[in-house]
Every structure is written in structure tokens, then in C-alpha cells.
């Protein structure tokens, strides 16, 4: 088995980072399109402020440039696993709410869910390469509160998608930072930029 | 004599040209007050109040370092201007991503490509204010047109800092500019300084004299065949298949005239 710092592992890691960056870029474009569709179909105002939603991983990071490669991968993996659950919940609610009335929104949600799942798998591959296993258990995302009205559920969905769009941008940056690291140095912070 | 006036609502602008380090805000009054004014700026991100460090120059600007990245929480910037006769204020609310606008690309250079009459090679550099192009790569938009036309051609380039224009009009001077944008977020920069370039053209050959024609050619074709020093249809001057056909036709006509006068 190749060591994490072997030349073949370094090539594999670079390849995985490059592909991951492309996946994240495509995902972001699709999430932004989905956001537009969601806002329109749900009759929402695109500029609505949405409070932080319980269970939605926030993309915001302090001292982002000081994170290690492993931290980046673990945070990303936890986030996308959570989004996998959240999007599945949204899809189920959307189907219950609208049934076949809005197949386009359902299809768009399903397509993004697929990309999120694929990206989570991709991150697992990268972590396996860094020999950072076993991974933590799947995140437990609480179900949406049952007393939420329809409008609140729609706003919650808006919050989920907005945060996912931020993550898609953050993930491509995280993977670029990871790609800059020399093999075997994922536990070392990324080279910090001078202020 | 100008009358002193209370301040009108100031004009405020915020922008990040050095993402992900921070952003700056700058302001001005739409009309002068003719008396001293003081400016106070507050920046709030969620529940956190941030410090906007005033620049020494220009005085109507301050900059702030990001404490968080990738946040969905909006920034709220309020500028208050006060003088002896009153005060006024304005507020801007924006997302972290929305204000990202790089400076234009630098060191734009356009050069002809030897032996290629329709090509121009353009290169440029990332703006020096953009701190980490490796992790936050820029994409570019190039526009070019011949000076004699008003319509621009556009090319968007997702990587690299050079491009070869391959459809320039031969012999025409071009004006070229480049703009930059973060690959994922924000808006396009202003256009770079314009550069001018003309595609390569072959050096014009001198016309031969009558004496040279008489001396160097035979009786049968001498007067009307092109002398060796003159090339009517040089390969380098050929632009496309249409031009090749023209060259061949010219050659045939000349040969025909030569035959007529044998």
C-alpha cells in the first residue's frame, strides 16, 4: 500500500483535488440555479434574511487560511453528509407539499442531492488517501421541527440552499489549499498569506 | 461667496480588490458644504462590530480585514457625516461575495506573431493587489477591435494569462483590453489600460526597373513575365483560399499577355 507521501499518492491526491475542484464548481453553478428556481417556485423574496437553521452546517470559517488539510477535509465531509440528509428532507417535503405539480423543482433538488452525495464520496477518497480513517459516524441532522408552518419550511429550505452555495465555493478553495500542500503534510497548516 | 450647508446624503462604496484579505469602503459628498465635515463609519457583521481602519491617503477611505470567510451573514456599513450645520448618513448592506471586484490586469502586452498576418499574441499579469491567485484564481475577459471598427470581439479565458488572437485583419492596428474576475464570485474588474498592436506584415518589395527586365528575361516572355525580384503572389501574403485563387489568376493573365507578344 502506497504511503501517504509516496509519489503515486501525491499524484493521486493532485488528481483527486483537481477533480474535486471541478465537481465543486459544477455543484455551485447548479445550486445557484436551484436557488433561483426555489425562490421563484416557492414564492419567496430572493433578498429575504434567513436566520441560522438548526442542523445546517455553516460555511463561515474564522482563520480559514490557518486550517490544516485534514481539518479542511473533515469539515467538508461533515458538511456534505449533513446536506445529503437536509436535501433528502427537502425533497420529501416538496413532494408531499406539491406532489407532481412541480416536477422541475423536484428534479433539480434530486440532481443537486446526487452531486452532494458524489462530492461526499470524493472527500472520503481524499481522506482515505491521507490515511485519516476511520471517519466519524454520519452526522445526525435533526428533522425539521414538526410545528413549522409552510412558510417557515420554505424559508428553512432557502437557508439550506444558501449555505450549500457558500460551501460549494469554500470547498473549491479548500481543495486548492490542499493541493498546495506537499505530500504527507496535511496535518500542517496551509502556507499562510502575509497580511 | 459660497454659503455653508449641512451635508447631503453621502455616497458610499465598498469593494474587495484583495480577497480574501479584506475590503475597503470609500465615500464622498455629492455637493460641497464649504465647511469642515467629519466622517464616522461603522461596520457590523451579524452581532459583531468591526473596526474600519482609516487610510492615511486618501482620507475618505478605510479598510477592514475579514475575520470570517464564506459567511452568509451580510455586512452592514453605515457612514455618518457631520458638520456645524447638521448631519446625514447612508447605509450599505452586502454579502461577502458581492463586493469582490479585482483591479484590472497589469502589464498587458500585445505583439505581432512573425510570419502570421492575422495573429496577435496578448499576455498580461494578475493585478498585484490580488494576494493569492493560486488559491483564488482569476478568469479573464479579453476584448479587441481594429481601430477602424467600433465593434469589439470578446473572448473569455478561464485560465492562463495569455491568448493568441487568430482572426485579426491583416495590416490593421488593433486596440486590446483585458478584465479580470474571481473564478467563482464577485464582478468583473474595470478594463485594463488599452494596448495597440498591428499584426505582422511582410516587408514591401521594391519595384524593378525597365532596364532590369530587358537584361534578365528572354524574347518570348521577357516583357510581361514578372522579373525574379518581384513577387506578386508571395505565400506569406496569402490570407486564405480566396487570395490564393486571385494570385493564380494574376499569374495566368500575365502568362497569357506574354504569349500574345512573342
Automatic annotation (TrEMBL), chain A:
<dbReference type="GO" id="GO:0005125">
    <property type="term" value="F:cytokine activity"/>
</dbReference>
<protein>
    <recommendedName>
        <fullName>Ciliary neurotrophic factor</fullName>
    </recommendedName>
</protein>
<dbReference type="GO" id="GO:0048143">
    <property type="term" value="P:astrocyte activation"/>
</dbReference>
<dbReference type="GO" id="GO:0070120">
    <property type="term" value="P:ciliary neurotrophic factor-mediated signaling pathway"/>
</dbReference>
<keyword id="KW-0524">Neurogenesis</keyword>
<dbReference type="GO" id="GO:0048680">
    <property type="term" value="P:positive regulation of axon regeneration"/>
</dbReference>
<dbReference type="GO" id="GO:0005127">
    <property type="term" value="F:ciliary neurotrophic factor receptor binding"/>
</dbReference>
<keyword id="KW-0221">Differentiation</keyword>
<keyword id="KW-0339">Growth factor</keyword>
<dbReference type="GO" id="GO:0030424">
    <property type="term" value="C:axon"/>
</dbReference>
<dbReference type="GO" id="GO:0043524">
    <property type="term" value="P:negative regulation of neuron apoptotic process"/>
</dbReference>
<dbReference type="GO" id="GO:0008083">
    <property type="term" value="F:growth factor activity"/>
</dbReference>
<dbReference type="GO" id="GO:0005737">
    <property type="term" value="C:cytoplasm"/>
</dbReference>
<dbReference type="Pfam" id="PF01110">
    <property type="entry name" value="CNTF"/>
</dbReference>
<dbReference type="InterPro" id="IPR009079">
    <property type="entry name" value="4_helix_cytokine-like_core"/>
</dbReference>
<dbReference type="GO" id="GO:0005615">
    <property type="term" value="C:extracellular space"/>
</dbReference>
<dbReference type="InterPro" id="IPR000151">
    <property type="entry name" value="Ciliary_neurotrophic_fac_CNTF"/>
</dbReference>
<keyword id="KW-0217">Developmental protein</keyword>
<comment type="function">
    <text>CNTF is a survival factor for various neuronal cell types. Seems to prevent the degeneration of motor axons after axotomy.</text>
</comment>
<comment type="similarity">
    <text>Belongs to the CNTF family.</text>
</comment>
<keyword id="KW-0963">Cytoplasm</keyword>
Automatic annotation (TrEMBL), chain B:
<feature type="domain" description="Fibronectin type-III">
    <location>
        <begin position="104"/>
        <end position="204"/>
    </location>
</feature>
<keyword id="KW-0449">Lipoprotein</keyword>
<dbReference type="InterPro" id="IPR050379">
    <property type="entry name" value="Type-I_Cytokine_Rcpt"/>
</dbReference>
<keyword id="KW-0675">Receptor</keyword>
<keyword id="KW-0336">GPI-anchor</keyword>
<keyword id="KW-1133">Transmembrane helix</keyword>
<dbReference type="InterPro" id="IPR003961">
    <property type="entry name" value="FN3_dom"/>
</dbReference>
<feature type="transmembrane region" description="Helical">
    <location>
        <begin position="237"/>
        <end position="260"/>
    </location>
</feature>
<dbReference type="GO" id="GO:0019970">
    <property type="term" value="F:interleukin-11 binding"/>
</dbReference>
<dbReference type="GO" id="GO:0004897">
    <property type="term" value="F:ciliary neurotrophic factor receptor activity"/>
</dbReference>
<dbReference type="GO" id="GO:0070110">
    <property type="term" value="C:ciliary neurotrophic factor receptor complex"/>
</dbReference>
<dbReference type="GO" id="GO:0009897">
    <property type="term" value="C:external side of plasma membrane"/>
</dbReference>
<keyword id="KW-1003">Cell membrane</keyword>
<keyword id="KW-0325">Glycoprotein</keyword>
<dbReference type="GO" id="GO:0097059">
    <property type="term" value="C:CNTFR-CLCF1 complex"/>
</dbReference>
<keyword id="KW-0677">Repeat</keyword>
<keyword id="KW-1015">Disulfide bond</keyword>
<dbReference type="Pfam" id="PF00041">
    <property type="entry name" value="fn3"/>
</dbReference>
<keyword id="KW-0472">Membrane</keyword>
<dbReference type="InterPro" id="IPR036116">
    <property type="entry name" value="FN3_sf"/>
</dbReference>
<dbReference type="Pfam" id="PF24031">
    <property type="entry name" value="FN3_IL27B_N"/>
</dbReference>
<dbReference type="InterPro" id="IPR056621">
    <property type="entry name" value="FN3_IL27B_N"/>
</dbReference>
Amino acid at each position: 500500500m502506497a504511503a501517504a507521501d509516496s509519489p503515486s499518492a501525491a499524484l493521486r491526491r493532485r488528481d483527486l483535488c483537481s477533480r474535486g475542484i471541478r465537481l465543486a464548481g459544477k455543484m455551485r453553478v447548479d445550486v445557484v440555479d436551484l436557488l433561483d428556481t426555489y425562490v421563484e417556485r416557492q414564492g419567496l423574496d430572493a433578498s429575504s434574511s434567513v436566520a441560522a437553521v438548526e442542523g445546517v452546517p455553516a460555511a463561515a470559517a474564522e482563520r480559514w487560511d490557518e486550517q490544516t488539510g485534514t481539518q479542511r477535509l473533515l469539515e467538508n465531509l461533515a458538511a456534505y453528509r449533513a446536506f445529503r440528509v437536509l436535501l433528502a428532507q427537502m425533497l420529501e417535503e416538496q413532494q408531499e407539499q406539491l406532489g407532481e405539480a412541480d416536477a422541475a423543482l423536484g428534479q433539480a433538488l434530486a440532481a443537486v442531492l446526487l452531486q452532494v452525495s458524489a462530492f461526499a464520496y470524493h472527500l472520503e477518497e481524499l481522506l482515505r488517501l491521507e490515511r485519516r480513517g476511520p471517519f466519524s459516524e454520519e452526522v445526525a441532522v435533526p428533522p425539521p421541527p414538526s410545528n413549522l408552518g409552510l412558510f417557515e419550511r420554505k424559508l428553512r429550505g432557502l437557508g439550506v440552499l444558501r449555505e450549500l452555495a457558500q460551501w460549494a465555493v469554500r470547498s473549491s478553495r479548500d481543495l486548492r489549499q490542499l493541493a498546495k500542500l506537499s505530500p504527507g503534510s496535511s496535518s500542517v497548516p496551509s502556507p499562510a498569506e502575509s497580511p | 461667496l459660497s454659503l455653508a450647508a449641512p451635508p447631503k446624503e453621502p455616497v458610499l462604496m465598498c469593494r474587495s480588490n484583495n480577497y480574501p484579505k479584506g475590503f475597503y469602503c470609500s465615500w464622498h459628498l455629492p455637493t460641497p458644504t464649504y465647511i469642515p465635515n467629519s466622517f464616522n463609519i461603522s461596520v457590523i457583521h451579524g452581532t459583531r462590530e468591526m473596526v474600519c481602519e482609516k487610510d492615511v491617503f486618501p482620507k475618505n477611505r478605510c479598510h477592514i480585514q475579514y475575520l470570517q470567510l464564506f459567511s452568509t451573514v451580510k455586512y452592514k456599513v453605515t457612514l455618518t457625516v457631520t458638520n456645524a450645520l447638521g448631519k446625514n448618513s447612508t447605509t450599505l448592506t452586502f454579502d461577502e461575495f458581492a463586493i469582490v471586484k479585482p483591479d484590472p490586469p497589469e502589464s498587458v502586452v500585445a505583439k505581432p506573431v512573425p510570419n502570421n498576418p492575422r495573429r496577435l499574441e496578448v499576455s498580461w499579469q494578475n493585478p498585484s493587489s490580488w494576494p493569492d491567485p493560486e488559491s483564488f484564481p482569476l478568469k479573464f475577459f479579453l476584448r479587441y477591435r481594429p481601430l477602424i471598427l467600433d465593434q469589439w470581439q470578446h473572448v473569455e479565458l478561464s485560465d492562463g494569462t495569455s491568448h493568441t488572437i487568430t482572426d485579426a485583419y491583416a495590416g490593421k492596428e488593433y486596440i486590446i483590453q483585458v478584465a479580470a474576475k474571481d473564478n467563482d464570485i464577485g464582478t468583473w474588474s474595470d478594463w485594463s489600460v488599452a494596448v495597440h498592436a498591428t499584426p505582422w506584415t511582410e516587408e514591401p518589395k521594391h519595384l524593378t526597373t525597365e532596364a532590369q527586365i530587358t537584361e534578365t528575361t528572354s524574347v518570348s516572355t521577357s516583357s510581361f513575365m514578372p522579373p525574379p525580384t518581384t513577387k506578386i503572389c508571395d505565400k506569406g501574403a496569402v490570407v486564405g483560399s480566396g487570395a490564393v485563387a486571385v494570385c493564380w489568376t494574376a499569374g495566368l493573365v500575365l502568362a497569357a499577355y506574354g504569349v500574345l507578344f512573342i
